[in-house]
């Protein structure tokens, strides 16, 4: 919450498909703000660059790996919309450089472009990682790594 304006902080997580990384980040961040008793100060959402999975629940593997850590990964996929999302959100958190290039290329001006931040810039436990790699074509260990990085990055964002 911005104490000068009383406005909620609005955070949008972005990945390619909105069925693995960004809905997991959405669920982890929601869990963290609830755990810290500050859920009312945040509005959290996620979206994908592509439209392949619009309306679908997250990938079953991410739902299951998240559930084992206590997260409800149950966002319905939607596509990023540059016409409304740059205005609606204060911070737009991307998972990798491809996401960063894609979303910043859609920004209408510098103010919008500066809202786009990389999850990796908030890692504290994984200082040598530069992105949250896409687990979609990977195995269970890739989903676990994505969740480790997402937990680290979300805590970093909240503490920043
Ligand atoms: P995400 O993973 O970007 O973490 O949701 C992907 C999910 C689906 C596809 C690519 C990445 N896909 O090509 O369908």
UniProtKB/TrEMBL annotation:
<feature type="active site" description="Nucleophile">
    <location>
        <position position="15"/>
    </location>
</feature>
<dbReference type="InterPro" id="IPR023485">
    <property type="entry name" value="Ptyr_pPase"/>
</dbReference>
<feature type="active site" description="Proton donor">
    <location>
        <position position="134"/>
    </location>
</feature>
<feature type="domain" description="Phosphotyrosine protein phosphatase I">
    <location>
        <begin position="9"/>
        <end position="160"/>
    </location>
</feature>
<keyword id="KW-0904">Protein phosphatase</keyword>
<protein>
    <recommendedName>
        <fullName>protein-tyrosine-phosphatase</fullName>
        <ecNumber>3.1.3.48</ecNumber>
    </recommendedName>
</protein>
<keyword id="KW-0378">Hydrolase</keyword>
<dbReference type="InterPro" id="IPR050438">
    <property type="entry name" value="LMW_PTPase"/>
</dbReference>
<dbReference type="Pfam" id="PF01451">
    <property type="entry name" value="LMWPc"/>
</dbReference>
<dbReference type="InterPro" id="IPR017867">
    <property type="entry name" value="Tyr_phospatase_low_mol_wt"/>
</dbReference>
<dbReference type="GO" id="GO:0004725">
    <property type="term" value="F:protein tyrosine phosphatase activity"/>
</dbReference>
<dbReference type="InterPro" id="IPR036196">
    <property type="entry name" value="Ptyr_pPase_sf"/>
</dbReference>
<comment type="similarity">
    <text>Belongs to the low molecular weight phosphotyrosine protein phosphatase family.</text>
</comment>
<feature type="active site">
    <location>
        <position position="21"/>
    </location>
</feature>
